[in-house]
Amino acid sequence: MEVDWDNYSLEDLFDMENYSYLPDLPTILSDSAPCRPESLEINQYAMVVIYALVFVLSLLGNSLVILVVLYSRVSRSVTDVYLLNLAIADLLFALTLPMWAASKAKGWIFGTALCKLVSLLKEINFYSSILLLACISVDRYLAIVHATRTLTQKRHWVKFICLGIWALSLILSLPIFIFRRAIYPPYSSPVCYEDMGANTTKWRIVMRVLPQTFGFLLPLMVMLFCYGLTLRTLFEAHMGQKHRAMRVIFAVVLIFLLCWLPYNLVLVADTLMRLRAIKETCERRNDIGRALDATEILGFFHSCLNPIIYAFIGQKFRHGLIKIMAIHGLISKEHLSKDSRPSFVGSSSGNTSTTF
């Protein structure tokens, strides 16, 4: 059974008085030891298969999304640029999955440098995703509720906004990059874990509260506000075409929340337990550990789901993909003529409707 190292401080793992290490090894567990970690009872090789599946789907799907958006240079919209960056974030994270899969089976065998790098990419993926979705919600709000052209007409601003999102995501992820390293405990496989020295609990709380506030709760509030008013405007105006143009965006947001909201709620529970706001017991600690295992797997699935949404819901994405295949002779051009290009309305700049 694998230990969920993310839920335990280094003090939890070593009984300094008795010099006994506390992995998932009952034979050397001392009577005075802290709670013995328990993890979700999923076969390690089943986890490797899941990670490999997500890796293949994400690599293929997000590469196609990037290709389609880059080919649609003429009709590319502001929202398209955000979705392009979203696909890039998911693709970068997908490239780290083989190492996470190997660590599930063999422990962390890649050293400190790669430990820092893949942990950084994972965090950047999460924060950039929700910040990009928040920007899309603002763009749709301005386009539909206020029908304004001031922001979205200026295409060059979108590039700076995206650069700002990547920079903010990097800043929010820096604590993980700074503190994570490869740790080689006795009697167990190496792990990629935060080493924060003294005051581990204090630093861990800071590392959670600030990013969750600025990297999750605030963007989520922006999204709820913007989409709430956008939906009200659409229903009041009976804009059927705009309803169809918004389906992909709503689906993307919904999938993101379904994948990552459970994980963040469990993290909030764990933080409250560490703050002693709720009573800490061995049973509760292990329950939270198992919940973090399960919800993190769900979060990993997010990186491969957006392209599936585009393929099943997005007419323009399918048209763009068929066009690329026809240009390169992969399919007959008859398929392209049969595939009528969908029209879009409801842009704030005349060209800001979603590609997908």
Automatic annotation (TrEMBL):
Membrane topology of this protein: Multi-pass membrane protein
G-protein coupled receptors family 1 profile domain ranges (all copies): 61-310
CDD domains attached to this UniProt entry: 7tmA_CXCR1_2
Cellular component, GO annotation: external side of plasma membrane
PROSITE patterns (alphabetical): G_PROTEIN_RECEP_F1_1, G_PROTEIN_RECEP_F1_2
Membrane-spanning parts: 48-70, 82-101, 126-145, 157-179, 216-235, 247-266
Keyword annotations from UniProtKB, A to Z: Cell membrane, Chemotaxis, Disulfide bond, G-protein coupled receptor, Glycoprotein, Membrane, Phosphoprotein, Receptor, Transducer, Transmembrane, Transmembrane helix
Intracellular or extracellular location(s): Cell membrane
Main location group: membrane
Pfam families cross-referenced by the UniProt entry: 7tm_1
MF GO annotations: C-C chemokine binding; C-C chemokine receptor activity; C-X-C chemokine receptor activity; interleukin-8 binding
Biological-process GO terms, alphabetical: calcium-mediated signaling; immune response; neutrophil chemotaxis; positive regulation of cytosolic calcium ion concentration
Homology family: Belongs to the G-protein coupled receptor 1 family.
Assembly, per entry: Interacts with IL8. Interacts with GNAI2.
General function of this protein: Receptor for interleukin-8 which is a powerful neutrophil chemotactic factor. Binding of IL-8 to the receptor causes activation of neutrophils. This response is mediated via a G-protein that activates a phosphatidylinositol-calcium second messenger system. Binds to IL-8 with high affinity. Also binds with high affinity to CXCL3, GRO/MGSA and NAP-2.
UniProt name for this protein: C-X-C chemokine receptor type 2
Primary gene name: CXCR2
